[in-house]
Amino acid sequence: xxxxxxxDVHGCIDExxxxxxxxxxxxxxxxxxxxxxxxxxxxxxxxxxxxxxLAVIELVYNMVVKHQVARYVPGNHCNKLYRYFxxxxxxxxxxxxxxxxxxxxxxxxEQIKIRHQFMTLYEExxxxxxxxxxxxxxxxxxxxxxxxxxxxxxxxxFVLYGDITGATHEDGRPIRRDWAQDYHGEPWIVYGHTPVLxxxxxxxxxxxxxxxxxxxxxxxxxxxxxxIVSVQSRQPFTSEKFRTF
Length: 245
Fold this sequence. Notes:
Number of strands: 14
Number of domains: 1
Distance between the termini: 32 Å
CATH superfamily: Metallo-dependent phosphatases
GO molecular function, one term: phosphatase activity
Helix content: 25-40%
Protein name: Calcineurin-like phosphoesterase domain-containing protein
GO cellular component, one term: cytoplasm
CATH architecture: 4-Layer Sandwich
Domain Calcineurin-like phosphoesterase: 1-196
Pfam families: Metallophos (PF00149)
Radius of gyration: 17 Å
Strand order of the largest sheet: 5-4-1-13-14
């Protein structure tokens, strides 16, 4: 099985389409397919902050749910948007406000459609994706070796939010431990969530959130080649959003 894991898109539809073309995918009506049957996997956080989250929702829904030519795992922003669509009392901030603004500008019929698409996509998604044939696990914020196979609340929090300490930085971002330093498992863990200027490979893990929405790059990790493929972002560069280890 040949896989292309795509990092956090965050509403950057133009960069996503460019990356899919660069990876060799071809447009086929409302989806993209690869002539050599490669499978794209979205690592979560497909919405928020970027210019066109609803277009990304529609494309990912068509590829994953409608035509079943791709896979998807949710991220923390996906979880928050899902809870918003459920009608929960959610703080519309930290990027969600951009998606909500797009959504509220739609006519009611289109709102119903996009809400259904996203909720179906989210509800049918696994918490994380274990691909034994590719010796790989795709999890939005990563996963500890001892958590593999589990889906309890503790694991769910880790997969969506990372190894959080409970403390926060001055700007409100949660302080997270560097779990990848202590990973010594055999399966590759491919994840995103924490923006880095370059893909970070350590101990059979690779962080491919290269901060497209913050003006850097949108990145894919190809298996079994273990190859990195990126396109440049079209968004303004915001240096303080990137973590250096």
